[in-house]
Write a structure and sequence with these properties.
mainly alpha; 16 helices; globular
């Protein structure tokens, strides 16, 4: 399946264009969830809590790849829109080199300071031991994980979104098969889950390098010899700063949730939040997949100076996000208990807690999609400053503040309501910037 950016997009064209990216993100989310399922049901809730405690920190590091992918993808798409294919390939190749250059030392530091990181997060006893083991294992494949995240955007820019879906399926099946082998049959515990994740991430990160290093007729991108151009690096980082900040903010918020949950609900609170995050990943994957796919299309139209099509994409995307939001919220309310039972059905008290928390937390999807799209819109328009401001306000300011303030007023339920308050405040910020910049960009 190839994607042409230089055309008018009807609703059906948009949905066809974004579907592979959405499927790619859903599959990626599912195999992360399956990892948690095996650990929870075959190792125990302490190991399950350990994975959820460490995962946000790993995502903070991995988000460098997301910044390079989204920020660089928008820049490359804009360059392609201006018919500068050679420059686009050089930027693409340079960014892959940069990800590896940053990823290797970061992974070493993550592994070396595993104990200090886990202690800082509040882990003690068996939870600390499991957290350290898992941290040291997943640090091995962090550079590949960063590449894997970046390629989620690059597949779309290359006009090969279906390849991204196929690679996600391959990595997912790989992870599941090795979970079955190491965790279930060989009973290797949390170590087995970590090794399965390493193998899947190595495939997802390094196979695309081989693919794009070959000459491909139907790809917009290929790896070429290049030199580092600092203005492109700076533009990529600024442009992708919102996605980077957004992912870091999400990880920081997760850490803050864990701190508050240990205080108010103990280990069960972390396990319940882990279930919410796993299921939330699938729902968020639909929105994130859409945004990954639409960003280069917006960037291309902006580079081509086509304001009429920018307006068309903006109007239709807002409508689609509202529809997604309603659908996801209704689905989450209906499926809360069955989904909680999949992970912790062996513990009725924990199932009740997770179901209750799930129904409160998932209300945020009513407006979450619109807020995330507005941030993505400005990334596609190569205005990383505004995009980053929206992301920072949404997560670091509003949600982090709410997760500490609301429990003082409403107890443990205040923790679950924090995200909903944050999304309402974020919608106000997003509306302000939409109105402010409408004349400049013509959307």
């Amino acid at each position: 399946m190839e994607i042409r950016f230089d055309r008018h997009f009807r609703y059906i064209d948009i949905l066809r264009s974004v579907t592979p990216a959405i499927l790619m993100m859903i599959v990626t989310s599912i195999y992360s969830i399956i990892d948690g399922y095996f650990v929870s049901n075959f190792v125990g809730k302490t190991a399950f809590a350990a994975i959820n405690l460490v995962a946000p920190v790993a995502m903070i590091i991995g988000s460098v790849g997301f910044m390079m992918g989204t920020g660089g993808g928008a820049l490359i798409a804009k360059t392609l829109g201006r018919k500068k294919e050679e420059d686009a390939n050089r930027i693409f190749s340079m960014l892959l080199q940069l990800i590896l250059t940053l990823g290797i030392p970061l992974s070493l530091l993550f592994g070396l300071f595993a104990k200090h990181i886990c202690q800082t997060l509040g882990a003690e006893g068996d939870l600390l031991l499991d957290s350290i083991v898992y941290t040291r294992l997943i640090s091995i494949s962090l550079p590949a994980f960063m590449l894997q995240i970046a390629f989620q955007s690059f597949y779309m820019v290359a006009g090969r979104p279906l390849l991204g879906t196929i690679m996600s399926i391959v990595c997912g099946i790989t992870n599941v098969l090795f979970d079955l082998l190491f965790v279930v049959h060989l009973q290797m515990g949390i170590e087995g889950a970590g090794i399965a994740t390493i193998i899947a991430e190595l495939i997802g990160g390094f196979f695309p390098i081989y693919y794009f290093s070959k000459q491909r007729e139907h790809s917009n991108l290929k790896i070429v010899r290049t030199n580092w151009v600092w203005r492109y690096i700076a533009k990529t980082c600024i442009n992708g700063s919102s996605e980077y900040v957004g992912n870091i903010a999400f990880s920081i918020v997760c850490i803050c949730y864990n701190i508050q949950l240990i205080k108010f609900l103990g280990e069960n609170g972390i396990a319940a939040y882990g279930i919410i995050m796993y299921v939330g990943f699938i729902f968020a994957a639909i929105i994130e997949g859409y945004n990954i796919a639409i960003t280069p299309i917006i960037g291309y139209q902006y580079g081509a100076g086509n304001q009429r099509e920018l307006h068309n994409l903006f109007k239709k995307s807002i409508t689609i996000m509202v529809a997604f939001g309603i659908l996801l919220t209704v689905s989450s309310e209906i499926s809360s208990r069955p989904l909680a039972s999949i992970f912790v059905g062996y513990d009725s008290a924990l199932t009740d807690l997770a179901t209750h928390a799930f129904r409160i937390y998932m209300l945020n999807f009513i407006i979450c999609g619109v807020n995330l799209f507005v941030s993505t819109l400005f990334t596609g328009l190569n205005n990383g400053g505004v995009s980053a401001f929206i992301a920072i306000a949404r997560s670091i300011v509003f949600e982090t503040g709410a997760v500490f303030i609301l429990p003082v007023l409403f107890g443990a339920d205040g923790i679950w309501f924090a995200v909903n308050v944050a999304e309402v405040l974020s919608a106000c910020v997003a509306f302000y910037f939409i109105k402010k910049y409408r004349k400049r960009y013509g959307y």
